[in-house]
Write a structure and sequence with these properties.
This protein is an all-alpha fold. About 85% of the residues lie in helices and about 0% in strands. The longest helix has about 55 residues.
């Protein structure tokens, strides 16, 4: 048995390897959470854009377009058409923003957690051998 590591040396190595593994998993979790945070920010920005387009567009440009359409249509019909167009644009932006927010939720590092569970299962299996 000369040349084989002692039990204390094996425990020390296992401890160091486990520490390195946990640190690597933490880095992975941090990267995954950063990506989800970015997606949440993008989704929120798109929803904000939808609100801005819906509000400012309906007030400013809508009045101008309604006035132009009123040259050929009754005023009420011109305003109704322009209002409908801006509401559709706002709706599309809201749907896109909601999709981005759904991709960011839940804000858990799912892949990292799965990888960590796999690592723990592997360690348990090796310990039982």
């Amino acid at each position: 048995m000369v040349g084989e590591p002692s039990v204390s040396e094996l425990v020390k190595r296992a401890s160091e390897q486990l520490s390195d593994l946990v640190k690597a998993e933490m880095r992975t979790a941090q990267a995954e959470l950063a990506l989800k945070g970015k997606r949440a920010g993008t989704g929120g920005g798109l929803l904000g854009a939808a609100a801005a387009v819906g509000y400012v567009g309906l007030i400013g440009v809508a009045a101008t377009l309604a006035a132009v359409l009123a040259l050929w249509l009754d005023v009420w019909a011109a305003v109704l058409i322009v209002t409908g167009v801006f509401l559709v644009v706002a709706g599309v932006l809201a749907v896109l923003g909601r999709k981005q927010l759904k991709r960011a939720v839940p804000p858990l590092p799912a892949r990292t957690m799965d990888s960590l569970r796999s690592d723990i299962d592997e360690i348990k299996e090796r310990v039982h051998r």
